[in-house]
Please model this.
Amino acid sequence: MGPTSSGTASRGTDRWSALDFAPPAADATEPESSVLVDHLDDGRIAIVTLNRPHADNAITTEMGARLTEAVETIAVSTGIRVVILTGAGDRAFSVGSDLRQRKSMTKEDWLRQRQAFDRTLYTVRQLRKPIFAAVNGIAYGGGCELAQSCDFIIASENATFGQPEAMLGLAAGGGSPVFLPRLLGPGRAMQMLMTGDPITASEAHRLGMVNELHAPHDLAEAAQRIARKIAGNSPTAVQAVKRAVQLGQGQPVEQAIAIMMDAHWRSAVHPDRVEGIGAFNDDRDPAFRDADF
Model:
């Protein structure tokens, strides 16, 4: 994850002013759990919340491990059909890795944390269930990359997205050099990665990085609306089409079509296909069964 942190302390330079955050207070009280998992609709929807709002949800080593554990648990919970990933509070989704914690790290500590964060992002990217980010404010560094690791992003109108790693002497390493050129186009991604300047939610929406924009007080409801729509569909079909998109990207056309057709034929012989068509003809809601895994 990219290295950023949070807070509102006064700064001695205007270099960081565009980023709108500073290291968190050293004496801040930590919450009992840095990652919360809640469930809606009889457990079909999981809401995963990054829960260090006093630090703009900056990610510590412990928080990263907790997020990995939460996603791994969701991965084997067959009753969960869709995941919303968001941040606590109304200021930030996440500003990435906690720089106050990193300040005193040895090289070995840093590399071990880097390996742990790699596992977190990999676990999110490889989740077979749909997972999308509801970005409720600042998303910088690893926080921005965490959102990019999800299937898609919706955001509040006051959200901002940034990759300030180069400003701190690092090359971004949590996925943004791979994902941003696909989301924004190579030129815009290069400018964002090289300057460290953030972009607004409206710009991210215009460029296709963000699917929907909502007023801050409407974001949670919008996320739940999308999640309920996904959860009401066949989870087996949803997971199959997600894999077809993931595995087909970057492949030659006929290879991508072969991957797609494999997913299609598997769904064609699945009981959900019979249930879905039957529900349509009977003018009723379908009762799709949980995915096998």
Q: What stands out?
A: Residues 107-126 form the longest helix (20 residues). Residues 2-9 have pLDDT under 50 and may be disordered. The chain is about 45% helix and 15% strand. The two ends are 28 Å apart (CA to CA).
